[in-house]
Amino acid sequence: MGLDLHTHSIYSDGALSPEEIIDTSVELGLSAVSITDHDNILAFDYARAQALKRAEETGGPLLEVVPGIEINTIYEKNEVHILGYFFESSNRALLDMISYQQHARVQQITEIVKKLNKIARIRISMDDITRLVKKGGSIGRPHIAKAVMNVGGVSNIIEAYKKYINDEAPTYIQRKTVSPHEAVEIVYEARGIPVIAHPHDLVIAENLVKELMNYGLRGIEVYHRRHSPAMIEYFSSLAEKYNLIKTGGSDCHGTRLSNQLFLGRTHVPDWVLAELKKEKSRLEIASG
Q1: Do both 273 and 184 map to the same domain?
Q2: How confident is the model at residue 257 (pLDDT cuts 50, 70, 90)?
Q3: 231, exposed or middle or buried, with CB in 10 Å at 0-12, 13-18, 19+?
Q4: Which of 108, 146, 147, 223 has the fewest CB within 10 Å, making it most exposed?
Q5: Residue 259 lies in a domain
Q6: Residues 70 and 183 in one domain
């Protein structure tokens, strides 16, 4: 058995459908999975329905689908991603935040498309980008890169990032987002469990963790495919120091075809899910 609490579907920048994530998780013998799409929660209902279907078809155990999201924020020019688990998906503040984030993505990419046309002379349209994501999904840099490649602007995705959509590129503009403090607070108020994602990306990790705890941060993503054993040890000690839950997942985006199917490959102890559920119960009792 095993867990993977950080995956992405075609509702953001993943290559697999929610159903394919569930099918693969079942084949791998996972006990629980969470689809944590960027600024999006549309995959959950499809994933849960597929998990029920597979359990009925096989007579095997029901794969637990944990409600999840990954919220992209900017703080002092740093990308800070906040994971949320077990939130109430009907919470108005949460839905409003997701709507704001989606609108900001469209605004940002509309401006980037204009710059690509004007500065780089790459003839690309919003339709070229939006058709690369499931309807209602979150568009982002990976979709811009692929669209630029598709119209012949570059020969590969990496070249697109280097030339046109890195933070310093003249054709790139930064997205407006909620702050990590707002993201944490909103997830927490939706009776969810906010977790700081892949902290290896952050040079300001410990100070930010201490700040975010004042807004409801309850966990650190300790187990991640890019975390070395030394990083896992460090972030584990940080979680213990501040009495935060250790979480983890593969951060899978890819497919079998590209040999990048990281789903289920990151070891996440079974007790991680038990700790999240324990915290969820505490939140339910505290809120009456």
Answers
A1: yes
A2: very low
A3: middle
A4: 146
A5: yes
A6: yes
Q: Is 235 helix (H, G, I), strand (E, B) or coil?
A: helix
For residue 150, give the CATH number of its domain.
1.10.150
- Tens digit of pLDDT for each residue in 182-194? 999 999 999 999 9
* 239 vs 232: CA distance, rounded Å: 10
Q: Is the domain of 61 the same as that of 203? A: yes
The total of structural domains in the chain comes to 2
Amino acid of residue 186: I
Q: Are residues 261 and 243 in the same domain?
A: yes
Query: Helix, strand, or coil here: 31?
Result: coil
| DSSP 8-class letter at 86 | S
pTM, rounded to two decimals:
0.95
Q: Taking Cα atoms as reference points, which of 80, 83, 2, 100 lies closest to residue 37? A: 83
Bridge partners of 79, per DSSP, are 74
The DSSP element (H or E) to which 209 belongs, if any, is helix 205-213
Query: What range does the domain containing 19 cover?
Result: 3-96+176-286
